[in-house]
Amino acid sequence: MAEQPVDTVTEVPVAIVGAGPAGLMLAHRLARAGVDTVAIDIRSREEIEITQRAGIIEADAARDLIELGVSDRILRDGFEHEGVDLRFGGRSHRIDFQAQVGESVWLYPQTDVFIDLADARARDGGTVHFGVRDTEVVGETTERPIVRFTAADGTRHEIRARYVVGSDGSRSICRNLVPADQRTQFFREYPFAWFGFLCDAPKSAPELVYAHSEHGFALVSQRTESVQRMYFQCSPDDSADAWSDDRIWATMQARVAGDDGFQLVEGPVTEKSVLIFRSFVQQPMRWGSLLLAGDAAHTVPPTGARGLNLALHDVKILADVLVRALGGEGEAALADYEPAALGRVWRAQNFSWWMTQMLHTPPGALDFDVRRQLGELDNVVNTRAGRTYLAEQYTGWPARSGD
Ligand code: PHB
User: Fold this and answer.
1) What residue owns the CA closest to ligand 1's atom 9?
2) Rounded to the nearest 5°, which phi and psi values hold at 374?
């Protein structure tokens, strides 16, 4: 590949490998500071737009999307959620975020965040190549890193940058550029997965419902007034095709059933998939002129809805650090990235793991384990410290809290 002649050579301060929400938000933030970028992604724009991801944006991230001029569509098409329901013992227990911490979250799907960011890049004249192939990054330990790729139209391009950012998701090629003996990968798998589906139906509840039951976990989320997103715990070996609509609804209804008579409003299932669960962190997040952000550096299980929010937090810090590095401080400024990003990464790892272990029933769980979980849930909803803890973690540790 390296010998292949290139059709264009571009010089730009920052090359971004991975144009999902993290990469595009970074490009947007840098553009506002006068720093040019070229972002590339192996997926087509359409493919990213239809890949279902989580749907909860924390308060600070929602404010940033609006105040940084990405879009204010979240105010029109999103839904402000001032709380969440934890459902166990056959009834729902609401955690009131506003009462606990004075914050809300926004139900606004990641696909919409991506569309807003891609539109903003197009509107502002930013360069983004979707659907590229044969990507290679070379010279990442030098001051002249290079990204080469073949664009969707078959032309070959070379980007000469000062810094390269790897925001290329959980199957990152960039993170593998850190030599194996120089990196540590912290990894945890879970003995269950999520079955996620979209359905055409009205909302079953005004806010999200996280349900613990003797049959396993379920989550009732939403998309619009007429399209809903739901999940239930399944086996990692399950195949989406093995689940008929009837079986999906019977499973969901059993997991949310209770003495209060709560029932989901059913409708045709329009999309379904099995989502593998894992917790992952790679350190360091910087290698020479390469910086990792978002899922490329860390993955969380979706239970706490932290993944996108964490990625957006990474690039908030990274944009500042890159602007300083390019603006005279030089690469010494890069040393500030990982310490500032990593604290939140491990907090989110803990919260995502904690929500996961509290709500799921692992295969072979003892009666003791299930009763202990119910004790934990009781502590969360029926003590002030418990409610505040969940509310603060879920709405996302605002910067003003001094952390
Ligand atoms: C979703 O709406 O897709 C969603 C919401 C909350 C989660 C995970 C996924 O914790």
Assistant:
1) 54
2) -65, -35
| Ligand 1 atom at minimal distance to the Cα of residue 109 | 2
Pocket of ligand 1 (CB under 6 A): 54-56, 208, 219, 221, 229, 302-303, 305
Nearest-angstrom CA–CA distance, 207 and 85 = 7
- Distance, first Cα to last Cα, the chain: 45
Rg (CA), the chain: 22
Exposure class string for 195-230: b at 16+ Cβ within 10 A, else e: bbbbbebebbbebbbbbbbebbbbbbbbbeeebbbb
What is the rounded CA–CA span in Å between residue 186 and residue 282? 6
Q: pLDDT averaged over the chain? A: 96
Please give the distance, rounded to the nearest whole angstrom, from the Cα atom of residue 290 to the centre of ligand 1: 31
Q: Which residue from 219, 222, 233, 299 has its CB within 8 A of the most atoms of ligand 1, so it is best to mutate?
A: 219
User: For a pocket test of ligand 1, which of 87, 231, 360, 394 has the largest count of ligand atoms closer than 8 A to its C-beta?
Assistant: 231
Does residue 160 sit in helix, strand or coil? strand
Q: Residue 54 has what pLDDT?
A: 87
pLDDT at 61 over 80: yes
Ligand 1 mean position, distance from CA 229 (Å) = 8
Query: By C-alpha distance, which of 349, 348, 340, 339 is closest to 393?
Result: 348
Question: In sequence order, what are the residues at sequence separation of 6 or more whose Cβ sits closer than 8 angstroms to the Cβ of residue 152?
Answer: 44, 129, 130, 131, 132
Q: Identify the CA nearest to 118 among candidates 131, 108, 130.
A: 130
Nearest CA to ligand 1 atom 2: 55
| Cβ pair 107, 81 in contact under 8 A | yes
In this prediction the pTM is 0.96
Domains of the chain and CATH, by start:
8-55+110-183+284-356 (3.50.50.60)
Give the position, in ligand 1's atom list, of the atom nearest the Cα of 54.
3
* Residue 398: predicted pLDDT: 64
Q: How far apart (Å, rounded) are the C-alpha atoms in residues 52 and 342?
A: 26
Q: How far apart are CA 255 and CA 217, in angstroms?
A: 7
Comparing C-alpha atoms, which of 249, 254, 258 is closest to residue 197? 249
Whether the CB-CB separation of 313 and 293 falls below 8 Å is answered with no
